[in-house]
Write a sequence for this structure.
């Protein structure tokens, strides 16, 4: 099974996987609008890959078969300010004063 991987300029680390190059018919229009113009990154032969970086290979295959696409979201970024406040024994967010 082959799949095409596209990136967006709108969000670092967000990728869209589709079963065929240039085939976005199964991707919902609101998602395509938010994703922006897809830029081809690579075409992957899934059966030849044991690992796919941050993507669970079986979940990718299942979603390609069920939905016709897979959207990889960027990993959640750590909030350094919250971590620092917690290390000081403070709450994660400062109290709001009105």
């Amino acid at each position: 099974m082959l799949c095409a991987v596209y990136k967006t300029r709108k969000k670092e680390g967000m990728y869209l996987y589709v079963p065929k190059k240039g085939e976005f018919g199964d991707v919902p229009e609101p998602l395509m609008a938010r994703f922006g113009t897809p830029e081809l990154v690579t075409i992957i032969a899934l059966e030849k890959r044991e690992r796919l970086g941050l993507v669970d290979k079986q979940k990718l295959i299942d979603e390609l078969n069920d939905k016709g696409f897979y959207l990889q979201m960027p990993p959640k970024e750590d909030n350094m300010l919250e971590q620092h406040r917690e290390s000081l024994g403070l709450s994660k967010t400062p109290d709001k004063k009105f």
